[in-house]
Amino acid sequence: MARYWRLSQFYFFYFASLGALVPFWSVYLKSLGFSALQIGQLMSTLALTKIVAPYLWGWIADRTGYHIRIVQLTSLLALLCFLPLLWYDRYGMVLLSMLAFSFFWNAALPQFEVVTLAGLGPHKHRYSRIRLWGSLGFIVTVSLLGVVLQRIGIDALPWVLLGLFAAIWLSSLPVQEQRHRAGDGGHILDVLRQPAVVALLLSCFLMQASHGPYYTFYSLYMEGFGYGRGQVGLLWALGVFAEVLLFWYMHRLFAWRPARFWLSLSLVLATLRWTLMALFPDVLPLVLLAQTLHAASFGMFHASAIHLIDDFFPRHRGRGQALYAAVSFGAGGAVGSLYAGTLWDAVSPMTTFLGAALAALLGFAVSLRLREPPAHAGA
């Protein structure tokens, strides 16, 4: 039980920092006088470093076996690299600091996933019970921070983030290392050549790419159909709350059917979700249904993908989780934002969400090539 809480608090603070950074950091940058183009460039550093950093640090962790030490080191370096943002507001310094801190911040989570799954051992189907604390951290931050910043001013945001980054580092310190090295597990390319692994990573890429219109334009989209900002905020919260419930019960679903079944099902439900958003944004019951499907398009998919990555990369767990982060949230997220931004004004918002549905449907077709990991994968 003590280990459960040690692992859970890291997820809570890590995703609390995400809940502070993603919705509010662009507002802070605007308060510094940066243009929309500059803000876009600065925010893109979060996705760019997510493509590179996880794999580099995953390689180091696999070679040394020190996964939790990598988490502790990168968390501390992220904290230190964020410090200049408390005082400097020139574009060049802000860009360098954001590149530096996000390079380390994005590296920590994939290695902590390795630590969590290693600690759970044969009970890794219970991963979702720990990961749900990250979703709760996000909900708490998004719900409270907007009110707090409205009262005390957006200038306080860097100090709030500094406190959260410090909490991430401190929460990683009590976690013990369970050291294992890549050793004689073969080259990682031998794993990547497996058709099932290619299908898994491509499915991850397509699923996250399908979320591009949602993460980029959902608030603006719903406001355009007459929903108030308070209502839109509640819709966001509904999606994450549904995700928390799914995480709580996910271990029972794994006991019923294998992870690859739930991964494929989540892609079908994501296709339904984006179709509902495209065609029925003014029908409230269907809007609510679409938001509850966030439990599938993120929660069910993520829990299943983490499970499968751990199975397919038993000797390269650090790089396996890093590849998942880089391919899905890094490359998939970047491509999703790119096509969403391209289609939104050039064609129409409805077409953009239908494009998201198509991406998820393609992901489902690819996921049908998934097979169970080799028998030695759990070794």
Describe this structure as you would to a colleague.
The chain has 379 residues and is an all-alpha fold. It folds into two domains: 162 residues, MFS general substrate transporter like domains (Growth Hormone, Chain: A, Up-down Bundle), CATH 1.20.1250.20; 191 residues, Growth Hormone, Chain: A, CATH 1.20.1250.20. Helix content is 81%, strand content 0%. It is built from 15 helices and no strands. It is globular. It starts with a helix and ends in a 12-residue tail after the last helix. The mean pLDDT is 84.
Topology readout:
Layout: H1 2-31, H2 36-64, H3 67-82, H4 91-120, H5 127-152, H6 157-172, H7 188-192, H8 195-210, H9 212-223, H10 229-256, H11 259-279, H12 284-292, H13 294-312, H14 317-346, H15 349-367
Helix pairs in contact: 1-2, 1-5, 1-6, 2-4, 2-14, 3-4, 3-6, 4-14, 5-10, 8-13, 8-14, 8-15, 9-14, 9-15, 10-12, 10-13, 11-12, 11-13, 11-15, 13-14, 14-15
CATH class of the largest domain: Mainly Alpha
* Beta-strand residue fraction: under 5%
Estimate percent helicity. Answer: over 70%
Largest sheet: none
* CATH H-level superfamily of the largest domain: MFS general substrate transporter like domains
Counting DSSP E segments of at least 2 residues, the number of strands comes to 0
Low-confidence residue ranges: none
Number of self-contained structural domains: 2
